[in-house]
Amino acid sequence: MASLPLLGLLSLILTTNAATATTNSATGIRHGIIRKPSSDVPVFKEAPAFRNGDICGSNASDRIHIAMTLDANYLRGTMAAVLSILQHSTCPENVEFHFLWGKYEPEVLVSINSTFPYLNFRVYRFDPNRVRDKISKSIRQALDQPLNYARIYLADILPADVKRVLYLDSDLVVVDDILKLWEVDLEGKVLAAPEYCHANFTKYFTDLFWSDKGLASTFDGRHPCYFNTGVMVVDVDKWRQGGYTQKVEEWMAVQKQKRIYTLGSLPPFLLVLAGNIKAVNHRWNQHGLGGDNLEGRCRSLHPGPISLLHWSGKGKPWLRLDSRKPCVVDHLWAPYDLYNSSIQSLEE
């Protein structure tokens, strides 16, 4: 079992490498009872160990880098997302997770190590103060959390050896081999994501924005389409060289002076990149399953093949399942839920 990093060093990048762990095939079940680390952190079953297929390489270039935020409030979603990625991956041992957390929560780290003893991951501190003063109030409080903006700073946080990263939200599950998305040809673009050109793009910005010719002209020469920032393949070097963090921050500063949007960290991404990304097949982000941002009403699946299910919106599947008022699509998330409420009752 991988050893726990030193919990006292807040700014240290914590690395757990479980490449030498043994036993248990990808199809084997090895669920153990994990002692509850804290009353604030859910209890999880130990996940099975997943092993590489014969075709997998073992070089640094074969690594698949995935970045996610880490928050006790969304930990149940994160655990399900990680399990789904590993379970459907041809080369699960080549996947390396980069977790960003805004608050030091050692119990969360204990849970990850206990639930995934073989997981390759590093944890990085994201300083909330870096963005706190730049955030403007949006239509939903959850969108205003500093950690929601950490994706803007990936190029500053990740080590130099990470040239490409796949950013994923915590409220999704992957039902296909993540390698297929990882290997997408960016064609010189800084970012790849599914585009939705049928969506009403004007609704992502206020009337004040569209009535200001100087602001609206930012889209001149582009054919801007909506894309969801919860699933993105990012060329980290190109992002850094192009100063994209600063470009996003500049629009956040404009938002502080003028109310030009209401949806948190998404609109400044659209202002900088909409119409200038590599479009990915829609199957890689079946988004909106959490409903709208105000009421979170149930939504049906869109027609077509699916590789990734995303509960963006107010409703989260674990909360709706626990309330015994789930939407039909929430039952697609349930098989990846490692939460074990019976452990808590036994220990109490």
Explain what the structure shows.
- By secondary structure, the chain is α/β, with parallel strands linked by helices.
- The protein has a domain at 60-283: Spore Coat Polysaccharide Biosynthesis Protein SpsA, Chain A (Alpha-Beta Complex).
- It contains eleven helices and eleven strands.
- The chain has helices at residues 75-87, 106-115, 154-157, 178-182, 207-211, 213-216, 236-241, 244-257, 266-273, 317-322, 341-347; strands at residues 14-16, 64-69, 95-101, 121-125, 164-168, 172-174, 191-196, 226-227, 231-235, 278-280, 308-310.
- Strands 1, 2, 3, 4, 5, 7, 8, 9 and 10 form a nine-stranded mixed β-sheet that branches.
- Strand 2, helix 1 (75-87) and strand 3 (95-101) form a beta-alpha-beta unit.
- Its EC number is 2.4.1.-.
- It is found in: Endomembrane system.
- It is a single-pass type II membrane protein.
